C-alpha cells in the first residue's frame, strides 16, 4: 500500500514539474511574441506561433509564409535558413512545409476545375492564375503525367484580365476543356463570364487564409505543398510518395 502511495506521489510531482516547465515556456514565448510585435511593427495575428528551434537559444518565429529566428529576449533576429550540415537538409524549409500542411480532403473541390488523366488515381490541387507564365509551364508538364486527377482552383491575382479570363473559364459549358485550351493551346475562352462566379471569390479568400502567395501552388494528397512550376520528374516522385 505504501509503495502505491509513493508511486502515486512521484507521478504527481513529475506531472507538476512538466506543467511548470510548460507554463514557463508559454510565458517565455508569450513575452517574446509581444516584444517582437512591438519592435518589428507587425500586426496582431501576423506572428502565427513561436517555438524552440533546433538550435539552442534560438526561437522559431512563424510568420505563415516565412520563418525567422530570435533570441529569448527579442533583442536579435536572424533572417535565413537553418541547414543540417550532416544531412544537408534545409530544416527551415522542411519546418515551413510542415506548418503549412493542408488537410487535402477538406478542400472545397466543388470550386475547382477538375481534370482527370488516365485512371485519375493520384490526386493533386493547384492554385493557378490564367495569366501566370509558370502556371502555363506547369500545364505543359502535366501533359506528360498520367493517372492523376487535378483540381485547379482558379486564383486570379496578377491582373484584371486574369479575373476576366478566370470568370470566362468558370462560365464555360466545359470548364476543363476551356482551361486546357487556354493554358496549353492559348485558345482564349469565349464564354461571357457572367454566370455565378462566387467560387472564384471563395478561392481567393481560401488562398489568402492558406498563405498561398504565388502561383502555381501545388498541394499533394498528403497535404504537402510544391511551390512553383516543378519539373515532370519531381512531380512524378512527389505524386507517388503522396499516393
* Biggest pleated-sheet summary: 5 strands, mixed
Low-confidence stretches: 5-24
Corresponding CATH architecture of the largest domain = 3-Layer(aba) Sandwich
Count of helices?
7
Radius of gyration: 23 Å
Instruction: Tell me the count of domains.
Output: 2
Which sequence of strands runs across the widest sheet?
Answer: 7-9-8-10-11
* Helix-residue proportion: 40-55%
CATH superfamily of the largest domain: Glutaredoxin
The topology string of helices and strands comes to HEEEEEEHEEHEHHHEEH
Shape: globular
Give the percentage of residues in beta strands: 15-25%
Summing up helix and strand content along with how strands pair, one would put the structural category as alpha+beta
CATH topology of the largest domain: Glutaredoxin
Cα(first) to Cα(last) distance is 54 Å
Give the number of DSSP strands: 11
Mean pLDDT: 88
Q: Can you identify the CATH class of the largest domain?
A: Alpha Beta
Give a structural overview.
The protein is of the alpha+beta class and 243 residues long. It folds into 2 domains: 26-99, Nuclear Transport Factor 2, Chain: A (Roll), CATH 3.10.450; 104-242, Glutaredoxin (3-Layer(aba) Sandwich), CATH 3.40.30.10. The chain has helices at residues 2-40, 91-99, 133-142, 160-170, 175-185, 198-209, 232-242, and strands spanning 49-52, 59-62, 67-70, 77-78, 83-84, 89-90, 113-117, 122-128, 148-154, 217-220, 225-227. It has a 5-stranded mixed sheet with strand order 7-9-8-10-11. It has a 4-stranded antiparallel sheet with strand order 1-2-3-4. Strands 5-6 form a two-stranded antiparallel sheet. It starts with a helix and ends with a helix.
